[in-house]
């Protein structure tokens, strides 16, 4: 298994020449380390339309730098391979046509090795560009290069989410990397406590220095009634109680779309759970193992999260409640079980602290808030304006990060989003109570 050194982390926020060069190298190296345990065959599989092959992720993030940085900045720009622009454009209409997303798994060529060559060539050109541009030109490009870092980090998490799904369908039950995890149950965290917040007129959204996506702007005020949040995530043990009480069979807990979905898909447990001889097993990146009641439940959809909350007589937090609570408790500090821990899985909450535990890392937390523009939102100029804004329909906001989130990528104002039926992201549940129902 690869080891991740401190220099691989995107901890610095320097945007001067040296900072950009070192951060570029760090983020690119991190992607390759994540892919290193995977064979060329592993890297080619697309196990469902939402999943992209590992080598496609490696190539697409490279295409991003080639398209949005090199093409506009190199005087005699020539694409590494013209055809790659068609193969590795994801969804940018402003850049041109692209290959069918659900068919990415049939692209056997270029192979994983060719993608490595593509990465090396673009890396040399990017570092050369950063070194030779005059200060003014580099300053103008710095925001786009920085967007490329954070874009690649998003794909680092997707790479892990996606290969988890790929490996889950292999009857040999392969392990992503390392030894299979121990199967002894972990220490149960005890009953969840509650942390109270006064609410009132609060401010959310990105309001300081440092990188942010356009969807985190503008910072603005929202009014919150007094509310409380559970001090930890819902556990597998609690989810088993929901299942034992007919949670997946009793319509009264479910949103109409969710009830229709579980009939259609036959859902009766979280995504990666299977029952064998009366024992629930869970597929993880460390292999298949018995479901541990002490661990947070993960890979549940928004529909399931909402139904669980209804069963428990509670609700999901709104995104404004989540962000306000996180700011009250942590300011803008972020720490938790994210990818550099290399657990690749949520961990137990530990002993109560009187504060919210597991805010960052472990599992993305479903909110009850639809993914919509903040008041006064404007997408970024140009083709990169397609990055976030055009997806503001039929999706729900998630907050916090997960065990697959690259270090330095999570922040208090970060708005993740997925359709309410998505289960392959590492998603979990924190309950809320009091105040007003989520908007
Ligand atoms: Fe992308």
TrEMBL record:
Domain of life: Bacteria
Pfam families: DinB_2, FGE-sulfatase
Pathway(s) where this gene product acts: Amino-acid biosynthesis; ergothioneine biosynthesis
Keyword flag Coiled coil: no
Gene3D superfamilies: paralog of FGE (formylglycine-generating enzyme) (3.90.1580.10)
GO biological process, one term: ergothioneine biosynthetic process
Assigned keywords, A-Z: Iron, Oxidoreductase
Domain Sulfatase-modifying factor enzyme-like per the UniProt entry, residue ranges: 193-432
Protein name per the record: Ergothioneine biosynthesis protein EgtB
Gene name, Swiss-Prot/TrEMBL: egtB
């Amino acid at each position: 298994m690869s080891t991740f050194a401190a220099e691989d982390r995107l901890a610095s926020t320097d945007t001067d020449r040296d900072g950009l060069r070192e951060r570029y190298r760090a983020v690119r190296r991190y992607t390759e380390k994540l892919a290193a345990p995977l064979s060329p065959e592993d890297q080619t599989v697309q196990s469902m339309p939402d999943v992209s092959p590992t080598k496609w992720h490696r190539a697409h993030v490279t295409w991003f730098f080639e398209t949005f940085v090199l093409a506009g900045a190199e005087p005699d720009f020539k694409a590494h391979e013209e055809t790659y622009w068609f193969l590795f454009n994801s969804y940018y209409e402003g850049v041109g046509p692209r290959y069918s997303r659900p068919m990415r798994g049939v692209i056997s060529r270029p192979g994983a090795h060719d993608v490595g060559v593509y990465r090396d060539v673009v890396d040399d050109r990017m570092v050369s560009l950063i070194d030779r541009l005059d200060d003014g030109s580099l300053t103008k490009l710095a925001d786009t290069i920085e967007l490329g870092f954070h874009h690649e980090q998003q794909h680092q998490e997707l790479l892990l989410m996606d290969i988890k799904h790929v490996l889950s369908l292999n009857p040999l039950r392969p392990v992503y990397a390392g030894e299979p995890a121990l199967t002894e149950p972990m220490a149960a965290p005890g009953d969840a406590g509650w942390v109270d917040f006064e609410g009132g007129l609060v401010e959310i959204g990105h309001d300081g220095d440092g990188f942010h996506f356009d969807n985190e702007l503008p910072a603005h005020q929202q009014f919150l009634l007094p509310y409380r949040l559970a001090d930890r995530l819902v556990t597998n043990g609690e989810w088993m109680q929901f299942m034992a009480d007919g949670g997946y069979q009793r319509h009264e807990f479910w949103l109409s779309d969710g009830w229709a979905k579980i009939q259609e898909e036959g859902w009766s447990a979280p995504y990666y759970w299977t029952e064998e001889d009366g024992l629930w097993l869970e597929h993880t990146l460390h292999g298949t193992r018995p479901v541990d009641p002490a661990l947070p439940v993960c890979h549940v959809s928004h529909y399931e999260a909402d139904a669980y909350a209804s069963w428990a007589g509670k609700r999901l937090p709104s995104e404004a409640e989540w962000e306000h609570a996180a700011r009250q408790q942590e300011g803008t500090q972020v720490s938790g079980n994210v990818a550099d821990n290399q657990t690749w899985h949520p961990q137990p909450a530990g002993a109560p602290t009187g504060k919210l535990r597991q805010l960052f890392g472990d599992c993305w937390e479903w909110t009850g808030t639809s993914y919509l523009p903040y008041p006064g939102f404007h997408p970024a100029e140009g083709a990169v304006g397609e990055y976030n804004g055009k997806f503001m329909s039929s999706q729900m906001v998630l907050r916090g990060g997960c065990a697959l989130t690259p270090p330095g990528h999570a922040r208090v104002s970060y708005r993740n989003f997925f359709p309410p039926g998505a289960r392959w992201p590492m998603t979990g549940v924190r309950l809320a109570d009091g105040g007003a129902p989520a908007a």
